[in-house]
Specification:
20% of the residues lie in helices and 27% in strands. It is of the alpha+beta class and 370 residues long. The relative contact order is 0.12. It binds zinc ion.
């Protein structure tokens, strides 16, 4: 059977990962690998991190009564934690927890629709609660096709992770996004009232587990930890890269750049914005972006070709000059003439290959591109 849970957190300090961890600790049956999935970032009533949880249960229908009781006692009381956010312009919705239980894993198609767009409820099985049922079912539907791992520990009191432990896990093969190279700031510990002490990401389970142990030893007191299979950094939210030739480029208020009237490179996107600014009409790029209300929000950009029209160089090394409309060019020094009035010189972008926003501005789902 498949169990899913979502939307129990709020900015006041709740966190679905901890609620799920406690549920797993209480379960009267065996269960599989816990999974943490991130879904479409623009979903209307999404929770903060857009994380939903699921797990396979090795049991039968007898678990329903147990879950019923657990739901009423432990999860339902979390409903309606309205959070006032001072650091988010986004409208915050009250948490509306949802829990689902299915005999069969929901169709994979539901996951793909929920990670790439807005979906409605998935019918069937046994369901408890409200909007959280959507993310809960979508998490159950995930097939772990692309997978990364995250070790999460929850704090008892204050949040403190030693710099030494952070440096150690940062150096391990297989961990990623531990630290923002620009600011040198650690990325594993959230800020604010959330009960998470740290979340450390890795490309394999074993590394996530080892890194978690090292960090726990270097942290103030924790109340537990768990390793999750996740769809983070898999790029599942974007089907494929697209190409475009720059036809228009405008700078909007706030330093955001919009290409071809529909491709947005936000100021916060750092190097992505820098490349967008550098582009000229006629340049060809490849990009990854999420479509929202008719615009693509750029998450990665790569210059394929950029050139600039220049007057040819004379054999003597001097730049030729126009002699007037339709009359070719001439060297101002040795007076040689040429009928080739322009040629395209390739421009080298300030950053080669795929360029992405700084580590702390990337989406959970964003894949690291090289
Ligand atoms: Zn010359």
């Amino acid at each position: 059977m498949w169990l899913g849970l979502d939307d129990t957190d709020s900015l006041e300090g709740g966190c679905t990962t901890l609620v799920f961890h406690e549920l797993l600790n209480s379960l009267p049956c065996e269960y599989g690998e816990p999974r943490l999935t991130r879904l479409w970032p623009f979903a209307a009533q999404r929770t903060r991190g857009n994380a939903s949880l699921s797990v396979e249960l090795f049991t039968d229908d007898s678990i329903i009564d147990w879950l019923d009781k657990y739901w009423n006692e432990k999860i339902l009381p979390l409903k309606g934690n309205v959070s006032e956010s001072s650091h988010s312009l986004r409208k915050q919705y009250p948490s509306d927890p949802g829990m689902v239980l299915f005999r069969e894993q929901p169709s994979e198609d539901y996951y793909w629709r929920a990670v790439r767009g807005e979906v409605t409820f998935f019918e069937g099985g046994r369901q408890w609660g409200g909007n959280g049922r959507i993310g809960a079912a979508a998490s159950c539907a995930w097939r772990c096709g692309n997978v990364t791992w995250e070790g999460i520990a929850w704090r008892k009191g204050s949040r403190k992770v030693s710099e030494n432990a952070l440096t150690t896990v940062e150096m391990m093969d297989g961990t990623f996004l531990c630290r923002d190279p620009r600011t040198n700031r650690g990325l594993i510990a959230p800020r604010g009232p959330c009960p998470v002490m740290f979340g450390v990401r890795a490309t394999d389970r074993d590394t996530a587990s080892k890194a978690t142990q090292i960090l726990i030893e270097g942290s103030s007191e924790t109340i537990g930890s768990r390793i999750f299979a996740t769809n983070q950094a898999t790029g599942d939210h974007i089907e494929k890269a697209q190409k475009l030739v720059v036809k228009t480029k405008e700078m909007l208020q706030g330093g955001h750049i919009i290409l071809n009237k529909n491709c947005l490179a936000f100021n916060e996107s750092g190097d992505v914005n820098k490349i967008a600014q550098w582009l000229e009409i006629g340049d060809e790029i490849e990009f990854m972006g999420l479509e929202h209300e008719g615009n693509f929000h750029l998450e990665a950009i790569k210059v394929i070709f950029s050139s600039t029209a220049k007057r040819p160089l004379c054999e003597c090394g001097t730049r030729m000059k126009s002699m007037g409309k339709g009359q070719g060019v001439r060297c101002p020094k040795c007076k040689r003439r040429s009928d080739q009035t322009w040629y395209n010189e390739e421009r080298k972008p300030p950053l080669q290959g795929w360029v992405q926003p700084p580590a702390d501005k990337r989406r959970h789902l964003a894949k690291t591109l090289t």
